[in-house]
Fold:
Amino acid sequence: MERASANIVAWSGDGEEAMNVPHHDSASMPRERHSHRRPWKRLPRQRSRGLARRSFAAILCGIMKTIDDPTIELPDAKRRELAYVVNVIRDGFARAIQHRTQPRFRNGHILKIILFGSYARGDWVEDPVGRYFSDYDILVVVDHEDLTDIPEFWADTEARFLVDLTEGTALRTQVSTIYHSLDDVNEKLRLGRYFFMDILRDGILLYEEPDHPFVEPTTLSSSEALQEAQVYFGEWFESAAGFLDTAHYAAKQGRNKEAAFQLHQATERFYHCIFLVRTLYSPKTHNLNRLRALTEQLEPRLRSIWPTDNKLHKRAYNLLREAYIKARYSREFIIEPEELAWLTERVGLLQNLVSELCTARIAELEGRQDAA
Structure:
């Protein structure tokens, strides 16, 4: 259960108030690469909507912004929603562990809840015409790795968010959550993973228990970052392309369900590929919506891959999203040749764009190495 001394820093305003994700297959998930590092030297980027740059002293000391920071420009409605999100996460976790018999589960704790991504940076998008809306990206930090198991501890909370979003009263913005232990986040910071460095720099602390600090971040040298990015690109792009080739073959043989699963795997790996090349990290998830949302924040050009301007496009993408489980295990999963052909075309476009973006990123790192 949560300790009474915990600090809730989510703003409450005047009136505060899924799909079940399967266990990830560790063999198919991104793995960290260890190398020697030096102190972090990456400069903060200038942000829109009046967010001030953070001082090196604050960043290196691990001092994060809180929601009441005067430089944060979030509308009151968004602040109320975020306060509600914090409450749902904490209440859902408390229910998930309350009947556990093992002390390590029953005595588990949420140590931090952090808003990151576009809403933390101040460049979120709400575009009804283009039908694109930024998510609330939330990092939940727990006290040990077992508590990051989504089906065991977080499925009901994520289902609650989907119900709330559908009802549109307490919540009108989609919530995308990732879960890590404190030890894991600190290890990522020691390894110089840009994704977590950016969270430390740009993120907004919504809730924390005291006395559980992040470590001082370090970074890779230009040559080390280049080497890792090249290896990740070689491994993951080749793997994704292989699944796409297999999807083509299965479709020609009339094995549409198998082809749909192979397309899901190709899509997932292309997203992991660009995420790894850009940040040297990728979330361990088969949830295509979550992975897509995070990746499109890194590379907005990827948003063009999945148009939603007609029923065929919407249904086909939903079938792709469901294919990881249902294409293998459900007799009711049916995908028509027209839908499969459209998905194959879009995944091919994704392949080309990921290749272009990764090649550009590697060229950028090569330029930094030459300048060093």
The CA atoms of residues 237 and 273 lie 6 Å apart. Confidence is low (pLDDT under 50) at residues 1-27, 34-53. The chain has two domains: 7-218, 222-371.
